[in-house]
Each structure stands twice: as structure tokens, then as C-alpha cells.
Design brief:
Length: 337
């Protein structure tokens, strides 16, 4: 039987005879929405790099469909193609058929993590990432060391070590390390920031785990903008993490536990504002992941800060960019483009 011809009978067969188990497999109804038109191809970073059909969104959707077939198994090649997906979701907005690739890949990753034996190195690296980056307190403890490193140039020296040179993963991770000031260890946002001028209402601000420490200036600026636009901003220290990083890696149980903690923490707020794309997209998925009315209400209340600004319009006074700033932005754009 062709991988493109899935019948109702196959949908109801014993999950033991197919690649996917019976716990939230990628939906056949959503899979069938893909007409393989190819509009997703130029938007997909992994397809551009590897130039392999199976490293495109429509190729991965085909693999998801194959996973429902009689006798199908999860092969190492399938794992590689799914792992190469960055989860950027650029294909979702490019798709003329409205294929919900985001929901499909989010249901596929837990299937892989439940059924695939990862190498010790892969498990160790992932666990190390989860145990560090989803814990703001641990990131704060690291901030003074990172600030010292910036002064001494230790990362440049590490990058030249033979061990690092042999590991593309380590090289990339070191190259992505941001410049973190020592004050990041102690900087905190106020629990409540009053609105400037007539109040529009109150919002809860989701700080994020990495964002609140390594990019705390962005959070502080976001709160100032919200206050200037008339919002009373409530900032909570907990939850420590919304679960986005873990969720997008397919570690389902741990991610759902953090999702439930996040929903409970923001009970009573009509609007939850995020300024981190990963956090915002994850929280908007809680309704589909948890499938409860409470989770759906929470997801419906989540807004990116730019969404909130666009929906209600500007109130704070705007001033034009200084000529020097506009010139610098123009030069920067021409260089990067």
C-alpha cells in the first residue's frame, strides 16, 4: 500500500503494528491537509542546507504518514530528519493550505523520545541544557563568571582547544554565548510597575528563564513600554520556566508539569504578556497539549508584547529616530542584507 493512501481501517488498527504508539501520534487528519505543493521549501532552513526532500516540512509530513502504516518502524534516518527540524515554524505561515506543521512536529518529537534510544552523549548534553537553562537561579550564579570571561577572553582560548575543534556542537555553543554583565546576578524587576497616566488595566508579564538573566535589559525595556502604554505590569518570580525548551525537545511529561505550574501561577490574570517567541508560542499551545478548558482559557489570554501593542494602539508619545540612528540602522541593514 502506498504511504499516501491511508484508510479509516488503518487509523483504527493496533498501534503495536506501526511506528507511532497510541499516545497522541501525529494526526492523520492534519497530515492529509498537506497537498505537497512545495511552498514550504524556500522557507525551511534545514532544506536549504541539506537539499534533501526529507529535510523539508512536506518531507517530514510524509515520514509522519509512513509512521502510521502497517509494519512501519522508526528508523535512524527518520530520527535524523526529524531532529534536523529547527522548529522555527516559518513553513506554517508560508503554507497556502493552512497545514498545522507546528502541531504535527510537537506530537512527533515525544514519540521519538519515548521510543528511540539516544546515545549517552546526546542524553547527557540535553540533560545538562535542561538543568541549566531552565533554572534562572543557576544562570544568575553563572553570570559573574561569564562577565569575567568577557574580560579575559577565555572562550576564545577554549575555542582553540583540540577537543573543541573536533566537536562542531561545542564550537557552535561557545560561539553563541552572549555578553552577560555581572549585575545580571542580582538584577530583578519590581513585582508591580504602575501605569503611567490613565490606566488601561493590568497585565502579567512572563519573564522567561534565560531572558530574565542574560537579557534582563530587554525585559526591563518591555516593562517600561507597557507602563508607558497605560498598563499596570505584574511580574512574578515563579514559575521559573514555561517548559518551552523541554517541550520542543519532546520531553513531554516534564514539559507538561511546567505548563501546569505556569497556568496556576497566572490564575486571575486576563492577559499574560510574553516578549520571548519560544515562551509565547509554547504557552499558546497549552490548550492543545493539556486539552483542558483551563489550559485553553490560559492560551487564549497569552499575547506577545507586539500583539498587544498592535491590538490596542499606541498611547505613549512617539518621537522620530535621530538622523544618526536612522543612518546607522540603514548601514546595518545594507551590510546584513
Amino acid at each position: 500500500m502506498s504511504s499516501l493512501d491511508i484508510t479509516h481501517h488503518e487509523r483504527e488498527r493496533d498501534p503495536a503494528n506501526r511506528a507511532w504508539d497510541d499516545h497522541n501520534p501525529p494526526s492523520l487528519d492534519l497530515i492529509r491537509d498537506c497537498v505537497h505543493c512545495g511552498f514550504c521549501l524556500p522557507t525551511c532552513p534545514s532544506y536549504k542546507v541539506f537539499e534533501d526532500e526529507m529535510d523539508s516540512p512536506r518531507g517530514r509530513i510524509l515520514l509522519m504518514r509512513i509512521g502510521h502504516e502497517e509494519g512501519a518502524q522508526i528508523s535512524p534516518e527518520m530520527v535524523t530528519h526529524f531532529d534536523r527540524c529547527l522548529g522555527c515554524m516559518a513553513c506554517v505561515t508560508a503554507c497556502p493550505s493552512g497545514v498545522q506543521y507546528d502541531r504535527l512536529i510537537e506530537s512527533t518529537r515525544p514519540q521519538l523520545e519515548r521510543q528511540v534510544d539516544r546515545s549517552f552523549t546526546t542524553r547527557a548534553v540535553r540533560r545538562g541544557i535542561f538543568e541549566l537553562f531552565t533554572h534562572p537561579g543557576r544562570l544568575r550564579a553563572l553570570a559573574p563568571l561569564m562577565a569575567l570571561e568577557g574580560r579575559l577572553g577565555l572562550l576564545d582560548r577554549l575555542a582553540n582547544l583540540a577537543l573543541v575543534q573536533r566537536s562542531p556542537r561545542l564550537r557552535v555553543m561557545l560561539s553563541l554565548a552572549p555578553d552577560v554583565p555581572a549585575r545580571a546576578a542580582v538584577r530583578r524587576l519590581p513585582a508591580v510597575t504602575k501605569a503611567r497616566g490613565p490606566a488601561r488595566g493590568r497585565v502579567a508579564f512572563m519573564q522567561g528563564c534565560v531572558q530574565r538573566v542574560w537579557f534582563s535589559d530587554v525585559n526591563a525595556a518591555t516593562v517600561r513600554v507597557l507602563a508607558a502604554e497605560g498598563w499596570e505590569v505584574h511580574t512574578k518570580a515563579q514559575p521559573r520556566c514555561c517548559g518551552a525548551l523541554i517541550m520542543h525537545s519532546g520531553v513531554e511529561d516534564e514539559a507538561l508539569a511546567l505548563a501546569r505550574e505556569t497556568i496556576a501561577a497566572y490564575e486571575g490574570y486576563d492577559t499574560i504578556v510574553a516578549n520571548v517567541a519560544g515562551c509565547g508560542s509554547a504557552m499558546k499551545e497549552y490548550g492543545d497539549l493539556l486539552e483542558t478548558d483551563e489550559a485553553r482559557r490560559f492560551s487564549a489570554s497569552v499575547r506577545d508584547v507586539t500583539e498587544l501593542a498592535a491590538e490596542l494602539g499606541a498611547r505613549a508619545e512617539r518621537t522620530p529616530h535621530a538622523p544618526q540612528t536612522a543612518l546607522a540602522l540603514s548601514a546595518s541593514s545594507s551590510v546584513s542584507g
